[in-house]
Amino acid sequence: MDPNQISYSPGLPPLSGQHVWLVSQMLEAEDMLGDQVFYNIHEPQSSYRCRVPELLGRRIRGCFHGWVIMSNHPHNNMWSLWNPSSSSKPTRLPTLNHEDISECCLPSPPDAPGSILLLTRKEKPTFVFCRLDRKRKRLRWTEMSYAKQLKNITGEDGFVHGLTCCNGKVYALNAGHDRDGLVVEVDIVVTAKEVAISVLPFVKLPRYSPVVQGRDYYTGPFLKGSCSEVFIIYQYFKLEEVSCMRLVRLDMTRKLWEEIEDFEGATCFLDLDCSSNAIVSMSSGGHGGCIHMICEEEKVIYSYHVKDKTMARSSMPYFQELWSRTSYVSLWAMPECSLEGFDSKEEEEDDDHTVEVNSLTNQSHLFNIPFHLLEMIMEFCGDIDYVNFRATFKQLTAPVTRWGNGSSMRRLQRYSLVSPWLMVLDNDHGIITFIDPMFGDRYSIRTPPELNGNDLKILSSMYGWLLMSKDRESLMFFNPFTSEIRELPNLEEVDFIQSFCFSAPPTSPNCVVFGLGDLDVFIHFVAHEPATWVRYDMHFNGGGVPAIFSFSIYCNEEDLYALNKEGELSVFKYINEENYFRVTVDITPPSCCRLYFLVKHDQDILLVILDDKFGESVELYKLSRRHRRRRDKKWEKIDGLGKHMIFICETSCLCMEARTPEMENKIYFAMLDGENGKIVFYSFDTCRYHTFNAGKNIGESFRNLFGSKLHLHPHVWIQPTY
User: Fold this and answer.
1) Where is the KIB1-4 beta-propeller domain (predicted)?
2) How far apart are CA 153 and CA 187, in angstroms?
């Protein structure tokens, strides 16, 4: 959105309960002091710059039942409540002598009998509350310690956090961020003379969250109540990137947690500040089904789609300018809509067939053709047509031979595949999905039973095979087109190995597997007996300084190339021998970029650089051949790929000659366009990002990756082989 197109309003903009609005408050910028900017993520053109008198000098701390809770800036010792739908002025509360207030909660509207405003402190395990009964002549703050009550429940000292409301009751988390934590009920009893607050055990946190391995970690849990629902949200990270999210809901009657697989029309917003607290609001309406996370550091919004398990990034151009001038972006939540009626259960799937299909209402006349004739027809189908043919007629699945036999090999010889496919591994449902980068076609097969489980990871992809890990130690090769699995010796250190690669298909006697850790190289010769891993210490100039490698490739039958997160290339010469040595390409290309991808094509080593994760610019370099055998290796910048194409993702990159002119001179990302759901690519001809329209036509261009969606399921590019 062009900042000059923002609307100006002397008062509140036309807010709606259909959506959550973001409010940027100009509390420190001198030229805009007292202004507010309202932004709606679902209607990006509906942004307003306002000056609301009731918000002058006040910071929004929360929204409950249509009321806005505010505190004065910067001292936060004067609190007030305001209902923007009424003509009344904010209700000012007495001065508060504490500046370390952490969270606020309004269990019921201020005009409800027995209503109180409940606060928590950062430095002391106490509640601070104020009775809001209008009949009282004088309002006052009361502080009450909950330390002893909480210790009786958990056995240790601590704090509560994540205050939230549900059915008029208040719930919170104990301060421990482990999976043995508790949801506690903050029971509030208001009588004419006093307010009694008790902390009671309610339910343990769910235990079936994904296993955190190696350098992975998670934040949260975040607790949110909405009308009659209570939710828990987990965020899992790998190398500072969100790798997984879990949304679970509590059955309030049975006190059992259930994972939500489809958020339907609901929307959840997380505003994570530097103290790791969260302001969460929910609404319903169009464009729902997402958890939106405000990242003030990067000045973007991350949107996690619960059903698809994809992550999109949204830019807010006007907010990006404002964020550099103010520290406060708040959530403006109108009265929350009920989320009752959720049904997170998916339809039962037919386990008798390999390919997922839609049911047919009318039986095709093709069923009148004898099966042996249908088999002959299918012999002449290309692989995509073959799979679609089987998927259309479920009854044909049984008599048709499986992939990987002689007939499949003959089909492959008749049909030349255009490109690799993006493979997405849904561990939750045991489904493998393939996406065609040109046409956007998708089809799914079932994951082999031996590979089912939430801890299955993709480590590398080459030659049509996947190197995978399971159960922290188990390693195996897997060919999804033939369902062949080849197990490797266990490797206990697999959690702490950043990058894997292999030199040849596992069917080759020359196949060697490499794993790079902080200070060690692990090597396995697939055809050698006994089957074991060989461990070598890395040689570093000036001492044993660990490196975090993001990509590694094997080249020239003797050299291992490894790229770290800072773009430094290490070359391990004669890696198969004990007297190998390490050469570092210490002159990285002059760039302020952040993301680096290492690619091999024949004997060439290529480097793709994105200026940041949003891809504002793309640069391409090739390791100079004339320096390949020398220690002073150098990168040479190139302008394009010619007739070649590159496919990149976080674990493996592929480069090959394009089979069609439409696909050449492009870089294909493991990302989907937020609108049409097709693969996003970068063209060196236009220096812009695109997707393919119907057929092979290039669609509308855009200058960065904002709005594109990334799969959080394990995914990788793979070249089909049979």
Assistant:
1) 38-296, 443-682
2) 14
